[in-house]
Amino acid sequence: xxxxxxxxxxxxxxxxxxxxxxxxxxxxxxxxxLMSRLGWKPKNESRLFSMSQPASQMLLVGNDSQFAERxxxxxxxxxxxxxxxxxxxxxxxxxxxxxxxxxxxxLDSPEGPELLRRVQEHPPAGITLLxxxxxxxxxxxxxxxxxxxxxxxxxxxxxxxxxxARLLAALKxxxxxxxxxxxxxxxxxxxxxxxxxxxxxxxxxxxxxxEIRTPMNGVIAMVGLLMETPLTPDQRGYLxxxxxxxxxxxxxxxxxxxxxxxxxxxxxxxTRPFDLRTRIEETLDLLSSKAAEKNxxxxxxxxxxxxxxxxxxxxxxxxxxxxLLSNAIxxxxxxxxxxxxxxxxxxxxxxxxxxxxxxxxSVRDTGxxxxxxxxxxxxxxxxxxxxxxxxxYGGTGLGLAISKRLVEMMGGKMWxx
Length: 417
Known about the structure:
Elements: H1 14-38, E1 56-61, H2 65-75, E2 80-85, H3 88-97, E3 102-106, H4 111-121, E4 129-134, H5 139-147, E5 152-155, H6 160-226, H7 233-264, E6 272-275, H8 276-293, E7 297-302, E8 309-312, H9 314-330, E9 336-348, E10 355-365, H10 387-393, H11 399-409
Parallel strand pairs: 1-2, 1-3, 3-4, 4-5, 7-9
Antiparallel strand pairs: 6-8, 9-10
Helix pairs in contact: 3-4, 6-7, 7-11, 8-9, 9-11
């Protein structure tokens, strides 16, 4: 235990006043012997007998010996160790070699301003608060001290109690600052460990997804070839179930692989020219059979102001649109699913013949909808908006999370209304 700012007075006879330190030392010796016999060593053993250690370190730079003696006696009861330096060179060496909480630069001595200037040029590794001292209420001298980096400027002739309170307040602020620095370092280290763990998990998932996807593609391909041979109705039904299950599993594997790449920062966009209307029609053709099974209408509209040829990653754009449209079809039993592409703005790009387009894609359906309080969970990975719909419709909850990340990689954003 470290006692700071306490000056206890023992009102007993002189015999016990003389014998008390010896009895405390004996008790501590017995306690240490007992702990060593038990084989127990406290984590903070150095703190058990650190009452004699100063709580704070203060450095006074200047040639005013009388003020140094007065300041030392003023702060002795508060556990403050005061060191003195008569020149800036020696003070700077002490700041670099020893942890100093507070440095007092006497502006009446030429070494005080010199120290402030040299600390600005060669700051010590640790954090040291600087306070300037003046003998008179000189505004110009105080302003000079602040310009040289002093935190405060205190007159040396200040009333002792007020001077003590000002210095102790500065030391208290220094301790809080040290604690904040320690907490920040711990948070940085914790985040580094967490990021390393996330990267290891993402690398593992990516590797496993690759290993699983290759044989799964072979299974699906062989099932497709087998379905082209003469089969009984029961056999064809079994193969169709295998094919559907295999494609569903392959979709999950691809989602995990994409999500792992995005988490690991390894996802890259492949920018190439493409026709937007052609890509939208290919996307709708891909999902038309699912929509036909539920008698849904697939409708799309493209703004006439959008050029025929755009430049971007058309495969990732189609992946986002497929995810949005397939979700709309999954949760819609009757009516229609409507896709609209609008041109919001056009900005000049790097060359005169190029321009950056701000497009807005929206998917609307006549399905069951989502409760407003569930919208916040919609884009979280491995989370679905409603557990009841998850049980009924299935899914992993990765599709929208991946789509949102892809859209953000393209410089956009995704939301639900």
